[in-house]
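@here heads up, posting the sequence + SMILES for the zinc ion run so it's all in one place. Ping me if the SMILES looks off, I pulled it from an old spreadsheet.
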Amino acid sequence: MLTYLDEKQEKVFTIMIKSTIDKDIFVILKERRLRITYPRIEILRVLKSTRNPVTVLEIHSKIRNKKIDLATVYRTINAFLEKQLVTDIDFKDEFKRYELTIDRDHHHHIVCKICGKIENIENCFTDKMVKEAEEKGYQEITHSLEFFGICEPCSNKKLH
Ligand SMILES: [Zn+2]
Ligand SMILES: [Zn+2]
Ligand SMILES: [Zn+2]
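bot reply: prediction finished. Complex structure tokens:
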């Protein structure tokens, strides 16, 4: 099974097995033709274990190996973006957030304007919009659609 690995990759793979890192991560990188490096494995692990969109700073703070610096996280995320392994999500604040595209169904988010809590909106009814864009001759259409509101606990606090 591992015969297609070169020596360097085999070394990384051995490290992964030793540190009980999810073998999926290795496959994901391979499929996207991304070179397998320790920072990529580690950042993917963080992204896989996170349900909500996260900022580069949050990713960095969850990395176990502190030798991986912020610049590396930025570079890695950009490489992942290029391969559409992550999407960037804009909640109209000063931070860009990122989320894996694999491993989960297409969905949107709602952010509480007071406490910043993020929840998923699972329904998406954009078929007609996409169709309209296609009729205009567009291809490879993606969309980003985020919602903002005040969550129930925050609304209750406002009343008291
Ligand atoms: Zn999400
Ligand atoms: Zn809230
Ligand atoms: Zn959608």
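MO: The mean pLDDT is 88.
MO: One more: The longest strand covers residues 86-90.
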